[in-house]
């Protein structure tokens, strides 16, 4: 069983830990005999896909929403921001609950809440005059639902498989589904909004309902929940875990934030330049945005299949991926031809796609099951910070210091690469 050797600061394999794990056999081992089918993996993968569509699908139609509601660009941006803020705040709470009442008991109600939020948004936009604040409330509800959905998928996958190789491979599929949502979002959002401008709001509860049915029917979760400790004890225990594993855990948190920050900053830049310089909008714009994201998606899938349980390989794939991000980002400063920009952003997308599955696997496999939901949820919360920060910071950089914006992004990515080199020291396969 993998765990983190805190004194040495690297992933290792401990006979002592194996003995401890053997004492916890019995119900744990029996629960892990539950067969995991392709449909169960597909069903779990629907969660990140739905949650990504629920947010990113609105991005290409924000200008239309702004016109229809007669609001400022700042107000319309809050439709995205309030979703992320609520998710950031509540993800750790959802992780705590999932550790102690069960993963499905958190995921399914969260999807229901997200769906209700979509209904509120859709009905308000359809039937109510001056509906902005009601739509914002619906989006806040969706953010609450998002906090208990996708972030809980990572520890759920860790619970369902006995072999670390299977965990890594499935996490690659999960990350691919997450990225696929980003690929489909700009095109799907533009198509649905072309029917009626508020139709994307109504699409969200439909997607949530499909995911709920898949989870109920096909996903069997091993093990049973434990009695949750008092919240004060939970906070103390979480701090203890974070302090013990800080040499590598904080590094992975930081790297995750930076990668998502660069991804969304570059997507914002591409979206902005497509519309303002090349006058490309709607479905055509979505197709261009989907090219680098498609490369990211394919790379995530391949990486998840290749890393297996080799933690040393995970480290070096992550480092190589970040180097590609740096190369692609710096290259943006050397030209503004459309296909040149698409090409170098595709290189950066490949780097991001290579980096994310190893990070998911390292953090999921490196934490004991009892704390897995809480710690991986904190990691997901950190990633949301990168998502929320990327577009506004890129907007400021593009306006104030356009000559240096890409160098700043590359410098931040370089710090993440150094964190991989010096804070994550890993061994290879376990035998």
Q: Can you put this structure into words, describing what you see?
A:
With 431 residues, the chain is mostly helical. It has one domain (41-219, 229-423): MFS general substrate transporter like domains (Growth Hormone, Chain: A, Up-down Bundle), CATH 1.20.1250. 80% of the residues lie in helices and 2% in strands. It is built from 17 helices and two strands. It has helices at residues 15-23, 27-31, 38-56, 62-69, 73-101, 104-127, 132-147, 150-160, 164-195, 199-218, 231-244, 246-276, 282-307, 311-331, 338-365, 369-400, 405-423; strands spanning 2-5, 10-13. The chain has a two-stranded antiparallel ribbon with strand order 1-2. Helix 3 (38-56) runs antiparallel to helix 10 and helix 12 (246-276) packs antiparallel against helix 15 (338-365). The longest helix has 32 residues, at 164-195. The radius of gyration is 21 Å and the shape is globular. Mean pLDDT is 83; it is low at 1-32.
Descriptive labels:
mainly alpha, Growth Hormone, Chain: A, 431 residues, 17 helices, two-stranded antiparallel sheet
CATH fold-type name:
Growth Hormone, Chain: A
Number of strands: 2
Count structural domains: 1
| Total number of helices | 17
CATH class: Mainly Alpha
Percent of residues in beta strands?
under 5%
CATH architecture identity = Up-down Bundle
Poorly predicted regions are: 1-32
Fraction of residues in helices? Answer: over 70%
Shape: globular
Biggest sheet layout: 2 strands, antiparallel
Kindly name the structural category: mainly alpha
Order of helices and strands: EEHHHHHHHHHHHHHHHHH
> What's the name of the CATH homologous superfamily?
MFS general substrate transporter like domains
- Mean pLDDT level: 83
The span between the termini is 11 Å
| Widest β-sheet, arrangement of strands | 1-2
Radius of gyration: 21 Å
Region (Disordered): 1-29
Subcellular location: Cell membrane
GO molecular function: transmembrane transporter activity
Main location: membrane
């Amino acid at each position: 069983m993998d765990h983190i050797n805190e004194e040495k600061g690297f992933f290792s394999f401990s006979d002592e830990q194996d003995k401890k794990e053997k004492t916890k056999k019995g119900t744990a081992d029996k629960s892990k005999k539950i067969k995991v089918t392709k449909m169960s993996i597909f069903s779990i993968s629907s969660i990140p896909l739905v949650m990504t569509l629920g947010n990113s699908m609105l991005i290409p139609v924000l200008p239309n929403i702004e016109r229809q509601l007669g609001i400022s660009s700042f107000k319309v941006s809050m439709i995205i921001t309030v979703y992320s803020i609520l998710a950031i705040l509540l993800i750790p709470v959802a992780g705590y609950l999932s550790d102690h009442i069960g993963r499905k008991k958190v995921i399914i109600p969260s999807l229901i809440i997200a769906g209700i939020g979509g209904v509120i948004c859709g009905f308000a936009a359809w039937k109510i005059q001056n509906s902005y604040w009601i739509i914002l409330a619906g989006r806040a509800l969706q953010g609450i639902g998002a906090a208990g959905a996708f972030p809980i998928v990572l520890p759920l996958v860790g619970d369902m498989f006995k072999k670390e190789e299977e965990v890594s491979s499935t996490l690659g599929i999960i990350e691919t589904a997450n990225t696929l949502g980003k690929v489909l979002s700009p095109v799907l959002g533009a198509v649905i909004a072309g029917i009626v401008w508020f139709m994307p709001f109504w699409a969200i509860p439909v997607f949530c309902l499909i995911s709920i049915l898949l989870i109920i029917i096909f996903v069997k979760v091993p093990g049973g929940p434990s009695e949750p400790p008092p919240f004060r004890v939970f906070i103390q225990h979480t701090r203890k875990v974070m302090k013990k594993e800080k040499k590598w855990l904080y590094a992975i948190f930081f790297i995750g934030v930076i990668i998502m920050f660069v991804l969304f900053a570059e997507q914002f830049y591409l979206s902005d330049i497509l519309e303002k310089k090349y006058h490309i909008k709607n479905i055509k714009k979505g197709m261009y945005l989907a090219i680098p994201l498609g490369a990211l998606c394919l790379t995530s899938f391949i990486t998840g299949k290749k890393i297996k349980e080799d933690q040393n390989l995970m480290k070096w794939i992550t480092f190589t991926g970040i180097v590609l991000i740096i190369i692609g980002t710096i290259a943006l400063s050397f030209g503004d031809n459309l296909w040149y920009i698409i090409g170098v952003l595709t290189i950066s997308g490949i780097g991001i796609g290579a980096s994310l599955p190893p990070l998911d696997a390292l953090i999921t496999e490196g934490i004991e099951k009892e704390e897995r939901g809480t710690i991986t949820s904190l990691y997901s919360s950190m990633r949301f910070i990168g998502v929320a920060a990327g577009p506004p910071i890129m907007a400021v950089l593009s306006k104030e210091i356009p000559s240096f914006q890409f160098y700043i992004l590359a410098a931040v990515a370089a710090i993440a690469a150094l964190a991989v080199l010096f804070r994550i020291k890993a061994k290879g396969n376990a035998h």
